[in-house]
Amino acid sequence: MAPAVVDLAEVPVEPPVQPSRTAGRELFGADCDIGTEGSTVTAYCHNGYPETDLVSLHVECDRWWDVDGDGAAVAIGPAGRAELTGRCYKEVRSAWVTHRRPPQSPRPVPSGNR
Fold first, then answer.
1. DSSP β-bridge partners for residue 92
2. Percentage of the chain with pLDDT > 70?
3. Across the chain, what does the average pLDDT equal?
4. What is the pLDDT of residues 81-101, one digit of tens each?
5. Which residue, of 52, 59, 62, 74, is most buried by count of CB atoms within 10 Å of its CB?
6. Helix, strand, coil proportions of the chain in percent (round to 5)?
């Protein structure tokens, strides 16, 4: 009996490991659904929490010569929605969305406390 031959091009590649969420229920982070159609990736995000979330779409292309994409951060405020898009020239290997909090702006010093 001959061993089975596996075509590696048909084996799905796992996306990069995403950091796990904290054990406690943290009220932060937009929910994002990602879809791929051909070489185009679209992420639909909704922030149901009271803090602004900076989301970025990352696209990894399948071909070695195709440029991967890291999209600019988009601020989604409380109850806000955003649509993020990215693409490859050819096939998409994986896509994911990262989340981060916006930087804190320095608070002005009251004029009487100098």
1. 61
2. 69
3. 83
4. 999 999 999 999 999 999 999
5. 59
6. 5, 40, 55
Contact status, residue 83 vs residue 42, Cβ threshold 8 Å: yes
- At residue 9, the 3 state secondary structure works out as helix
CB within 8 Å of 113: residues ≥ 6 apart: none
pTM attached to this predicted model? 0.69
Contacts of 55 (CB under 8 A, 6+ apart): 30, 32, 43, 45, 73, 74, 76, 82, 84, 97, 98, 99
Strand-pair partners of 34: 43
In Å, how far are 4, 66, 110 from 82, measured between CA atoms? 46, 26, 37
Better-predicted residue by pLDDT, 36 or 14: 36
pLDDT score of 59 more than 90? yes
